[in-house]
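=== RUN LOG ===
request id: a7f3
mode: sequence -> structure
chains: 1
length: 471
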Amino acid sequence: MPQDALLDDYDGLGLAELIRRGEVAAAEVLEAAIARIEARDPAVNAVVHRFYDAARAELAEGGWDGPFAGLPFLLKDLYTFRRGRPCGNGSRWCADYRAPFDDPMVARWRAAGLVVVGKSATSEFGLNVSTETAQHGATRNPWNLDTSSGGSSGGAGAAVAAGMVPIAHASDGGGSIRIPASCCGLFGLKPSRGRNVTNDAWAGMTAFHAVTRSVRDSAALLDATCGPPAYHPYSLPKPERPFLEAVGSDPGRLRIAWHQQTPEDVPVHPDCTAALAKAAALAAELGHEVVEAAPDIDYVALRQAMTVIVGANMADALGPGNPLWPEGATEQDLEIVTWRFVERGNGIAARDYLRAQQVVRSVGERLAAFLSAYDIVLSPTMAQPPPRLGTIDTLRDDFDGFIRAVQPYVAFTQMFNMSGQPAASLPLHWSEEGLPIGVQVAAPVGEEARLFALAAQFEAACPWFGRRPPG
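=== RESULT ===
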């Protein structure tokens, strides 16, 4: 089988099965991924660190097991630590940093059989919904090189969309798995709070998982990694039934609420409305009950709380005394918007942070109440198509302008980081310009299986696996 065809014709589980049956060697798959990165990354700028020799050596040691045994994998270069390897967080300030320890999630990905071949680009400290940094430059969308691949997991999205690897790690504090998935025509699930091990950043709003080309890869990976240790502040037990079994199973007749409600100053683009209408119609054809209904969310309070929580966390992470970087950063070390977050965080009183956390709980309570009457919430993933590069600028000294600029891309996503509910972006629509337009489905906390079952129905009815960027 030609090496180049391996990464086009099979998803991650498919490639792992070929390796397991001996039809292809794991080393061949690794070399195919390396060749793809070298051939295609110069155009999109998705991979910022390459670990080729280390990956070859680790693979040669043998003993790989798990559902993805021998499969090449990219880690996101944001708070994801592998001993002795760089973790630059998209920042020139951390360019020379080497992790002194292994991240628990990295250990779980490796136990699943994944071979880390490199690290993917991220916006500086994950703050931007577009991956454009002073350190690494712009990461481009394979569907249109003048367009953003999203953020903060933009490198992961671009790499998978460009066919470099079938699965790549992504993380999500306000939409950073779902936004790149929408921009790049991929499946991207943000799991429930506590489903996977994460750090406690952003008041528990962050989640680790991946972007994939198939629903079943996402389900199998979550089976392999879920279940945080008992001492973790957020903890959901492993499900009794594997998530992979939900893929292809009958979810029953679901009651689906669709909406496109956004903050007052955020318009919804016609392409995003068309994607939503297509998904709602498809859900009805699949036999589900589909009704128009929107949760009651105070978007102003949500935005203000998010700014407080992120600012306080950035001040803690980048200020003097943090165990990772004890010396602290200066204004000259960081992009302007990152430094403005630090400044805002330094001025936040304890009571303001506590009140922001109360808003987080309030959003969760409202969404939980809403989903007591519905099984699924369906919306656009973003209110606008993928932005052109340069639209959202972290190097310009306009903090309030930056906050306004990101709103169209987080209007539908960040509420589920606050609520802790699982949410996924599905690539069901492409614009007339050829850009992917994702739709988002969300469910109650702990109901990833419901999302996987519904997503697999959509995937079967409206296949996306064979769609490839031009060139």
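=== NOTES ===
The mean pLDDT is 95.
The chain has one domain: 3-461.
=== END ===
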